[in-house]
Amino acid sequence: MSSLDESALRRLIDRQAILDCLTRYCRGVDRFDRAVLLSAYHPDATDDHGAFVGNPAQFADWVFEAHGSGQKRTNHVIANHTCDLDGDVAHCETYCIYFGLNRDDSIDVVGNRYIDRFERRNGEWRIADRVCMVEWHGGLAESSHPGLRAAMPALMTNAPNTRDRDDASYMRPLVVRRTAGS
Question: Which domains does the chain have, with CATH numbers?
Answer without folding.
Answer: 3-143 (3.10.450.50)
